[in-house]
Structure formats: C-alpha cells, structure tokens
Amino acid sequence: MKIKTLLGCVLAGVLAAGSAFADDPIVIKFSHVVAPDTPKGKGAEMFKKLAEERTHGRVKVEVYPNSQLYKDKEEIEALQLGAVQMLAPSLAKFGPLGVKEFELFDLPYIFGDKRVLRAVTDGPVGVGLFKKLQTKGVTGLAFWDNGFKVMSANKPLHTPDDFRGLKMRIQSSKVLDAQMRALGALPQVLAFSEVYQALQTGVVDGTENPPSNMYTQKMHEVQKYATLSYHGYLGYAVVVNTKFWDGLPADIRADLESAMKDATAYTNDIAQKENDDALAAMKASGKTQIIELTQAEKDAWLKALLPVHREMEARIGADSLREVYDEAAKFGYKF
Ligand code: LMR
Predict the structure, then answer these.
(1) Cβ–Cβ under 8 Å, residues 311 and 179
(2) In total, how many domains does the chain have?
(3) Residue-number span of the structural domain to which 128 is assigned
(4) Is residue 17 part of a domain?
C-alpha cells in the first residue's frame, strides 16, 4: 500500500473512532440490592427515565436491582473502583466506607416522624455527612426514603424479654448491633441478598426491615410473626463516584442533577404508600401474623432502646446528635 493511501486509511479510522466515541452514550451503572418494586427500585427507574429523556439519550442509565451485580459490601468497593457509577446504599451501610456518622439514622426512635427526618437530611447534618463522603472519593446526591422498620421472628415479639437469645440479622451498623444487644438478642451481620435463605434455614431467627423490603423478598413467608414496632428508620443516600461525576460535561451534569431532584421527590412521595401496600399484602397472605404493641409494651421497648443513644453518642458525634434532638424538639419530640 502506498504511504499516502495508508495515511488516508489511518486518518479515516481515527475520524471514525472519534465520531463513534462522540456518539456513544455515557453509561451510568446504577447497582442496588432490593427488588424493582420498592421505593428504591422505583426511584432508580424514575431516575433512569428522567436522565435519559433530559440528556436526549446522551446518557444511558443501566439499573441492576436485587444484588445482580454486587452484594452490600462489594457494591461500595465497586463504586470506589469505578466499576459502577451510582448506588443507593442504606444509611446503615456507610460504616465500612469509613463514614460511621451515617449510623445516627439507625438510632432507635430518633425520628418521631418524617418531618424531623427531612429537616435533618436537608439541614447542616445532611450537608456535613455528604462533605465527609467527599474524602472517600464519593459524592452524595440525595437522601431517599424507605420507611420505618418492623421486627419479625418465628415467635411473637411483644416485649424486650421475647428477644432474649434470638439471632437477629442486621445490616453492618454498630448502632444496630447495639440496638439488638439492648434487647438481649444476638446480632448477626448478613448481606441483604442472604437474608431470605438465612431465615428459611434457621441461620438466624429474625430480622428487621420496613414492610416493602420484607414483602418483596418474601421474608414474611419464612417468619411467622411481624411486630409493628416502627422502632427505627431505613433510608438511603444516592451516591456517585466523584471522579466520574466531576468529569462529566457541565450541561450533562446539570441535566442529571435535575433528574435526580425530581426522582428524589417522586421516591420520597411514594415510599409510605409502598410500605402500606406491602403491609396489607403481608396481612392478606396469611403467612405471617401481624402484632400491634400495647402502650405498656411500647413503653418497655422505649425503656430498653433509648439508652442506645448515649451508648453510641461518641461514634456518631455528640454535635450531630444534639442537632437532631434540636430539630426533633421543634416538632414536639423530647429525649
Ligand atoms: C437491608 O440490607 O436490610 C436493607 O437496607 C436493604 C435496602 O437497601 O433497603
């Protein structure tokens, strides 16, 4: 081949590669561990829809639910390595990343209702937590709700005494560990994807989660009782790999920020109904008996669990805890 023709071919190849590169969409792999039919699962799909629409296809969001790609711990490592770009781990799972202060959301009874929660996530505490994430190469984009947790087991759980000696599955949070110990149970950390089987085979005796997670993972089929204790909150931080996010063209990043803002409003709007529907479906299945606590029983739970706040104060930060208490006081909740 003549040298001129060869150069022409190389140039054509370079141009083709350049234009193929320019036309290829930016891919965001969004990995999560729950079912598509949950607040987080639906939120991720809504973000995909809005992000693809608003960037006119310049961004493609691939959502991988149900731990298809990674389990709890691995997904955080994958985010830091850039193998996935976006996650929404529960707030209980940031300890292993080195930001243990997120575990304040796990404190028993810390949020009397979602107004307190929102004031905290939107206020200085939420901003401070996202600042801490930055030091780990991770950028926080939003807080997404699931809901308040119920406790399940194969025996009725009315009072703290009923927990004595039970092996209870928890997420990887020291606050949840302390919570279960305060009830006299033996906490065991397991990845979410392993919980159903662990309950079915008796590796653990019980667990906690909002109804939407219990129902969509069929946990209610292997747990005879679920107590409507609503003793703690489960929510998420939507996070991205900082290098990836900062490297995006500014106009694309702005479109994605607006998609995330609207997907967040949508998720937080549907979360309560998702849980109400899941609880109704658990009841209708007849497979698990739903227990409501009497006032005296609720008081016994509070008495056993509130000391966990003091016990965990140093871990999550006395200042943050004080700020949460101050927000709670504005809505009439006193500790
Ligand atoms: C769990 O592991 O129990 C949940 O946090 C899973 C989730 O992401 O909702």
Answers:
(1) no
(2) 1
(3) 25-329
(4) no
What is the CATH classification number for the domain harbouring 176?
3.40.190.170
Residue 329 in tokens: 């006081």
Closest residue by Cα to residue 136 from 94, 173, 167: 94
67: left (phi over 0), alpha (psi -120 to 50) or beta: left
pLDDT attached to residue 9: 40
Structural domain includes residue 106: yes
Decide if pLDDT at 8 tops 80: no
Please report which helix (H) or strand (E) contains residue 75, including its range: helix 72-81
- What is the per-residue pLDDT across 268-296, written as a single tens digit (0 to 9) for each? 999 999 999 999 999 999 999 999 999 99
C-alpha to C-alpha distance for 109 and 177, rounded to whole angstroms: 15
Quick one: average pLDDT of 176-187?
A: 98
Question: How far away, in angstroms, is 215 Cα from ligand 1 center?
Answer: 13
For residue 14, tell me if it sits in a domain. no
Please check whether residue 302 lies inside any domain of the structure.
yes
159/297 Cα distance (integer angstroms):
6
Average pLDDT, the chain: 94
Report CA dihedral (249, 250, 251, 257) to the nearest 10 degrees: 110
| Mean pLDDT, residues 76-96 taken together | 96
Which residue in this structure is represented by tokens 């302390």? 178
pTM of the full structure: 0.92
The rounded Å distance from CA 245 to ligand 1 centre is 25
Question: Is pLDDT at 18 greater than 50 in this prediction?
Answer: no
Q: Which residues line ligand 1 (CB under 6 A)?
A: 33-34, 40, 90, 146, 171, 192, 209, 213, 234
